[in-house]
Design goal:
Elements lengths: L3 E8 L16 E3 L1 H7 L5 H12 L2 E9 L8 H17 L4 E5 L12 H10 L8 E5 L9 H4 L2 E4 L8 H16 L5 E7 L12 H14 L4 E7 L13 E7 L5 H14 L11 H9 L6 E5 L14 H7 L5 E7 L1 H10 L4 E6 L11 E16 L9 E12 L2 E6 L9 H5 L9 E5 L5 H4 L6 E4 L33
Parallel strand pairs: 1-3, 1-4, 4-5, 5-6, 10-16, 10-17, 11-15, 11-16
Antiparallel strand pairs: 2-3, 7-9, 8-9, 12-13, 13-14, 14-15
Helix pairs in contact: 2-6, 7-8
Length: 487
């Protein structure tokens, strides 16, 4: 009889400076729906499903709740989801459990959703019950998470193009555990280091990944991974770390984690974001005569918990006569207004700027309604290929010379599917602008030789000095230039 392995998780990247997150913000997949929505996708769960099939394990799909990154989760919402998840796990008669969790979940009362959830699971299941988790490399990991899970498999890349592989190796690990072939141990080594989201194509991270890959070729090493952490969270554990899983009979996870952490710390001066003001990015783009360029708005990235209705970059584009397209501004009210007026109508809009004053004033202008359409489509990018995105209703507006996609749902732009759904051919524009910090690069990075990063004020800005921190008591570099490792 095949072993029964459950899949369950609550997945959220929490920007504690963002708007609160409610239970209604979490679409929940239960039972067979979890398999139907994820099988064949390049996601953590897609990899878990494939790995379990390879190993002849019986998948028991239980519960998966994921919300677009945003502010703190309401404690009542978390308790509601946690209670249902625990009940399903306890009644399923499982042999093991796979957890596709993030690592940066925060509630009104809990600084680590992942530690809290894993603690509840560990101490309510029988001793030695296999719990194997995948992690986003932007997780802010508490040290205790390593004791609460049997094994941890964190992502290697940003953009996160390796989600499938991480899910697959987690499934292979739990299969080996259930065959009594290994007894893994996980260890998390925290490092006093914070930095904004950066691509792992940076030379510093290429070198660190090579060190990790070399470590994984050693006998008994299952995973050795760099964790970037998530700086837009005011919690004690916010920051970088190293996450290692080994076969405990062969090698110490703690010793290896500390070894890699020394290398990570040594690279701290080489971790930087090249960025412009909104106007500076537009000026740089305009200086590329005859070339098609892309501008990404780093500081209003919904993938980092920002509202997605910031207007700094849009204002900067409108102050020129450049022909540009923009994906996208989150503004339910304006979508509703455009839909009521209909295609071809001229409407007076107050576009964006409705959530957080840091993100700019509304764009007050007359706009032509070019299109109204559904925002539901599948991801083409390697960053989650096959995953279904639903931005609700979309409106395409022409404001001045800029064609702007306006959405009634929040999600960062990953590929040209966002534009295609809105009726925009990006090949026809001198400048393509979008809201994303790094994940857009998985698709657009090979298509645009010139990319300029705009980083105006916003709650996912690369300027970490603008965030007030009350809970972070330890010194972290570069906010504290005298921070040391080891401490």
């Amino acid at each position: 009889m095949s072993k029964r392995v459950g899949i369950a998780a609550i997945f959220h990247e929490t920007n504690t400076y963002g708007s609160p997150t409610s239970l209604a913000d979490f679409p929940i997949q239960r039972g067979d729906e979890l398999i139907a929505l994820n099988k064949g996708t390049r996601t953590y769960i897609g990899g878990m499903l494939a790995g379990c099939e390879d190993e002849g394990l019986e998948v028991v799909p239980l519960f998966y709740a994921e919300a677009t990154p945003s502010g703190k989760i309401a404690q009542s919402a978390y308790e509601n989801m946690k209670s249902e998840l625990l009940s399903l796990v306890h009644s399923a008669k499982l042999d093991g459990l796979l957890l596709p969790i993030h690592g940066a979940g925060v509630t009104d009362e809990t600084d680590s959703v992942e530690s809290d959830l894993c603690e509840a699971l560990k101490f309510s299941l029988q001793a030695g019950f296999p719990i194997v988790a995948t992690l986003d490399l932007h997780g802010n990991l508490e040290s205790r998470l390593g004791q609460l899970c049997s094994a941890l498999f964190a992502g290697r890349f940003n953009p996160h193009v390796d989600q499938f592989e991480r899910g697959w190796e987690a499934a292979k690990c739990i299969a080996a555990m259930l065959r009594n072939e290994l007894r893994p141990e996980a260890y998390v080594e925290q490092i006093p280091l914070q930095f904004p989201p950066v691509p792992t194509a940076l030379p510093a991270f290429v070198e660190l990944d090579e060190i990790c890959q070399a470590a994984e070729r050693r006998p008994g090493v299952l995973a050795a991974r760099i964790m970037h952490g998530f700086p837009f969270a005011d919690i004690p554990a916010a920051g970088a770390s190293v996450c290692v899983t080994t076969d405990s009979a062969v090698v110490s996870a703690e010793a290896l984690a500390k070894e890699i952490a020394e290398e990570f710390w040594a690279q701290r001066d080489n971790i930087k974001v090249a960025r412009y003001s909104a106007a500076g990015a537009v000026d740089a783009a305009l200086n590329c005569a005859g070339e098609r360029v892309l501008i990404n708005e780093f500081s209003d990235n919904t993938g980092g918990g920002a509202p997605g209705d910031g207007t700094h970059l849009l204002h900067a584009l409108l102050e020129t006569d450049v022909r540009a397209c923009f994906s996208h501004v989150f503004d339910k009210e304006t979508v509703k207004q455009a839909a009521a007026a209909g295609v071809g109508a001229l409407i007076d809009v107050r576009l964006g700027g409705k959530t957080n004053p840091m993100h700019g004033d509304p764009v007050v202008a007359q706009a032509e309604v070019l299109a109204i359409c559904s925002g539901k489509f599948a991801v083409k990018s390697k960053m989650g290929t096959g995953e279904t995105i639903d931005l609700g209703l979309l409106a395409t507006l022409r404001v001045g010379n800029v064609d702007v996609i306006v959405s009634s749902g929040r999600r960062q732009t990953l590929d040209d599917g966002w534009f295609i759904k809105a009726g925009i051919d990006i090949e026809q524009y001198q400048i393509v602008a979008l809201k994303s910090s790094q994940h857009f690069r998985a698709y657009f990075g090979t298509r645009y030789a010139k990319i300029f990063t705009a980083d105006p004020p916003g709650i996912s800005s690369a300027d970490l000095t603008c965030f007030q921190r009350r809970k972070l008591k330890r010194k972290v570099w570069p906010l504290d230039t005298d921070a040391k490792y080891p401490q």
